[in-house]
């Protein structure tokens, strides 16, 4: 069954019980690179300051996940998107956009600029990030291994509210 134009998902904290599904998606989505292992997901969930969320269908099926690291303390706080992945059957249905917005909401709560790396050949992801205020600020040659694919570094400035400026 293919998804409708827009998926109805619930965003909630990623659960340890979701890690096997995350590993499965990693292997499917990133076969030419170094997909995250179960241990990598456990380490990310254990790290203080990390914010990991899942996108769940009404039946509870995990169809995407995303993670953000928030480091430092104001005014030197910053955030980095560590991962954002969507089941191929649910891509282009709004799931990635919904996950990204959940991460950006967390970054905005602490008034952090946000950084990420994205494959230079991943035009849909680049467009998504640009639509959410990210600009290319660098190029990392051979960033992804073992494929050797290049990555753009992208950044979005901190969202500062009037009340935060005082």
From TrEMBL:
Name of the molecule in the record: Ribosomal-protein-alanine N-acetyltransferase
Annotated InterPro entries: AcTrfase_RimI/Ard1, Acyl_CoA_acyltransferase, Bact_Acetyltransf, GNAT_dom
PANTHER family named in the record: AMINOALKYLPHOSPHONATE N-ACETYLTRANSFERASE-RELATED-RELATED
UniProtKB keywords: Acyltransferase, Transferase
Keyword Transferase among UniProt keywords: yes
GO molecular function: N-acetyltransferase activity
Lineage: Bacteria, Bacillati, Actinomycetota, Actinomycetes, Pseudonocardiales
Pfam families membership: Acetyltransf_1
Organism the protein comes from: Goodfellowiella coeruleoviolacea
Record-annotated N-acetyltransferase domain positions: 9-159
């Amino acid at each position: 069954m293919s998804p409708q134009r827009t998926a109805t998902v619930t965003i909630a904290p990623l659960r340890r019980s979701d890690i096997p599904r995350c590993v499965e998606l990693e292997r499917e989505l990133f076969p030419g690179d170094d997909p995250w292992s179960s241990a990598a997901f456990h380490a990310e969930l254990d790290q203080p300051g990390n914010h990991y969320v899942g996108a769940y269908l009404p039946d509870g099926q995990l169809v995407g996940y995303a993670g953000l690291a928030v480091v430092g303390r104001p005014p030197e706080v910053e955030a980095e998107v560590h991962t954002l992945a969507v089941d191929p059957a649910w891509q282009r249905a709004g799931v990635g956009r919904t996950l990204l917005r959940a991460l950006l909401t967390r970054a905005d709560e602490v008034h952090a600029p946000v950084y990420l790396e994205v494959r230079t050949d991943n035009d849909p992801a680049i467009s998504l990030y640009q639509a959410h205020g990210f600009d290319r600020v660098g190029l990392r040659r051979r960033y992804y291994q073992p494929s050797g694919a290049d990555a753009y570094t992208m950044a979005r400035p901190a969202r500062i509210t009037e009340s935060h400026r005082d």
